[in-house]
Design a protein that fits this description.
The chain is of the alpha/beta class. The chain has two domains: 2-112 and 235-307, FAD/NAD(P)-binding domain, CATH 3.50.50.60; 128-231, FAD/NAD(P)-binding domain (3-Layer(bba) Sandwich). The protein has seven helices and 17 strands. The strands form four sheets. Strands 1, 2, 3, 4, 5, 6 and 17 form a seven-stranded mixed sheet that branches. Strand 4 and strand 5 form a beta hairpin. Bound molecules: NADP nicotinamide-adenine-dinucleotide phosphate. The site of NADP nicotinamide-adenine-dinucleotide phosphate (NAP) has 21 residues, from helix 4.
């Protein structure tokens, strides 16, 4: 029996594991995608103490730190089911393996939104992808489009512009919600074309993407010939496992948590991009902060419940 089962291998999950280990709690951390959304950050310039680091390198450091504790067991696997069994929780992995824990931290992050336009599904993986910073490298010397106006889109356009011939940054409004740092970075590139107040209507191709059609004309035509489309229109929280446990979600689908990151279900905590905390500001720093608070919440919870004789000892 583990003291805590942490689900999610991103900034929130690994930070939680570092803290639960230092609280001397027997910790099992698991996830299907090692590194989480952190892998999509080509350049991280806002992790305090490190001026510039690549997202995958930062996540590798998080992992090394977490597994340096003997209290931490790490497994790369998909969790298919979570249930409360008596006074503890049982987690089932895709392999059928079952693991038991006294508490849970859901650090399951979020998943990228799809646009739902014609051709998107057909050309997914054939020129349509959902991570400009991960995939831009494959479009060296080609023309691509990035859709969206947040940090993911504008950072993605800046990174894509380093390798692509031309980058169309297509946004439905005039203003960007991205950090001005990234907006300035794309404005400084002469191969980024701003296509504002336009929406993508269709992605066209033959076997692979060959072009797009906009909802309104741009420079005399609705059609643009290009080779790749990066859809970066935000993410939705991953809350399937929270639903299985009966955790309350807010109107936007994020897990509602108390100041100690505990969900409405005693013993179940949540941290990172899947919660309604930190003003929905999805950053490495906020995810790590929530992970630390959740670990502290678990520690306090176990002390309180343990002092009432609530858990079987050992395991
Ligand atoms: P986001 O901030 O939610 O922005 C999504 C963008 O897509 C918005 O500009 C939105 O337009 C547009 N959009 C949404 N639905 C659309 C639709 N159906 N059609 C056309 N456009 C649509 O998402 P994000 O950029 O992925 O960022 C998510 C979180 O991760 C944020 O908290 C962000 O700060 C963080 N993040 C940070 C960094 C960084 O610090 N470097 C990098 C990546 C992500 P409107 O503006 O009109 O709403």
């Amino acid at each position: 029996m583990y003291d805590v089962l942490i689900i999610g291998l991103g900034a929130a999950g690994y930070t939680a594991a570092i803290y639960t280990a230092r609280y001397k709690l027997k910790t099992f951390i698991v996830g299907a995608e090692d590194g989480g959304m952190g892998l999509t950050a080509a350049e991280v310039g806002n992790w305090p103490g490190i001026i510039d680091i690549k997202g995958p390198d930062l996540m590798e450091n998080f992992k090394k730190h977490a597994v340096s504790f003997e209290e931490v067991t790490l497994k790369i696997a998909r969790v298919t089911q979570l249930e409360k069994t008596g006074n503890h929780f049982t987690m089932t992995l895709q392999s059928g393996e079952k693991i038991e824990g006294k508490t849970i931290i859901l650090a399951t992050g979020s998943k990228k939104r799809h646009l739902g336009v014609k051709g998107e599904e057909e050309f997914s993986g054939k020129g349509v992808t959902y991570c400009a910073t991960c995939d831009a490298f494959f479009y060296r010397g080609k023309d691509v489009a990035v859709i969206g106006g947040g940090d993911s889109a504008v950072e993605g356009a800046a990174i894509a512009a380093q390798v692509a011939k031309k980058v169309y940054l297509i946004h439905r409004r005039k203003e960007f919600r991205a950090e001005p740092y990234w907006v300035d970075r794309v404005k400084a590139r002469d191969n980024v074309v701003f296509v504002l107040e336009r929406n993508l209507a269709e992605i066209r191709g033959e076997g692979k993407v060959t072009g797009i059609t906009l909802d309104k004309e741009f420079e005399g035509s609705k059609d643009i010939k290009l080779d790749g489309v990066f859809i970066e229109i935000g993410s939705d929280p991953s809350a399937e496992l929270a639903n299985q446990l009966g955790c309350a979600l807010d109107k936007k689908g994020f897990i509602s948590v108390k100041p100690n990151q505990e969900s409405g279900v005693p013993g179940v905590f949540a941290a990172g991009d899947n919660t309604n905390e930190s003003n929905y500001f999805a950053q490495f720093t906020t995810a790590a902060g929530e992970g630390a608070v959740a670990a502290n919440g678990v520690f306090n919870h176990l002390q309180t419940v343990g002092s009432k004789g609530g858990y079987m000892s050992g395991g």
